[in-house]
Amino acid sequence: MKVLVIGGDGYCGWATALYLSNRGYEVGILDSLVRRHWDLEQCIETLTPIAPIQQRLQRWTDLTGKNIELFIGDINNYDFLVKSLLKFEPEAIVHFGEQRSAPFSMIDREHAVLTQVNNVVGNLNILYALRDHFPDCHLVKLGTMGEYGTPNIDIEEGYITIEHNGRKDTLPYPKQPGSFYHLSKVHDSHNIHFACKIWGLRATDLNQGVVYGVLTEETGMDELLINRLDYDGIFGTALNRFCIQAAVGHPLTVYGTGGQTRAFLDIRDTVRCVEIAIANPANAGEFRVFNQFTEMFSVGDLALMVKKAATSLGLDVEINNLDNPRVEKEEHYFNAKNTSLLSLGLQPHYLSDSLLDSLLNFAVKYKHRVDQKQILPKVSWHRK
Ligand SMILES: NC(=O)c1ccc[n+]([C@@H]2O[C@H](COP(=O)([O-])OP(=O)(O)OC[C@H]3O[C@@H](n4cnc5c(N)ncnc54)[C@H](O)[C@@H]3O)[C@@H](O)[C@H]2O)c1
């Protein structure tokens, strides 16, 4: 099957593209490389030294004999997008190609606009390109668990059945996102749902939790295939960030009380979830939603787990509860469903001491690359 991975130079997309290629899919990568540009603009860098995409792909071919076709360009450029699709002729598109940092979207008006235009218009372009050229192609779109926010009831997978004044309906689950980035994902979900309804497109929205880990079977095959690992206050996500902080002896940066509970998964499960979605496509006209995570943790508990694992490796770790730069509930109910992917065969890699050890050791190996000035959060949600 031919699968185009949009955003295939990024953290999730790179691991997914190689995994699918290894599994026998015919894979293409489309990426504007804009994430590398945003890193330069913010003066930040992945912990791991990532090679230029062309070198990464050449190494993959040399090692495996498998070829991944590359399309460099922006999905906001509709002509480029359509030409690439006509050349590649995808049967499935996996869409990772968005600005994915909440703090980046909250820097100022320009970054909020950039995030929403990049994400919402790019996604809308894909919908139009599918309508006009590949209406049967399955769109697998990366959403986020952050679309739901933290409601005081259980979170369902995309839809909820409600009885109101004696009548009953199954409706899209209410969304209460916590940043202009998360809002862009909600807008995407609505646009995809509508396009499926009116044009009969088939789509799966993967509401993904926070991803942790760095090694997959494929990215671990060679130093040139290494994946990115972000630790800075803008793109670094909890757990990955904590492990790197522990490795360099920086106090773990827990925002507020640390009672914020979120959904998490190992990057080895991200790649598998995407394959499960591709192998079991949505029906024509169906907008299917899967919650893509394996476990829920509070940020404070994660910090304690990292501290324990790091201490047993001889690292000295403090936990620092910082003033929360975000506006969010720090103590709340959080219970989300994740049964769809499990029932389709996902066998989770749960967070374990051995994973924490390997991530910590990995971080220690590259700690000479850490710029300590980039660790603390600099972007505030609050009005100045
Ligand atoms: N990393 C996580 O923990 C996480 C959690 C939940 C959801 N997600 C979602 O998964 C997706 C991938 O996240 P990631 O962590 O791999 O991000 P990333 O920044 O590492 O990768 C995104 C890639 O998309 C490319 N891109 C962005 N805009 C583009 C455009 N207009 N045209 C072409 N390419 C473009 C970037 O250059 C980059 O290579 C995002 O949609 C994100 O919202 C990620």
TrEMBL record:
InterPro entries: Epimerase_deHydtase (IPR001509), NAD(P)-bd_dom_sf (IPR036291). Residues 3-291 form the NAD-dependent epimerase/dehydratase domain. Belongs to the NAD(P)-dependent epimerase/dehydratase family. This is NAD-dependent dehydratase.
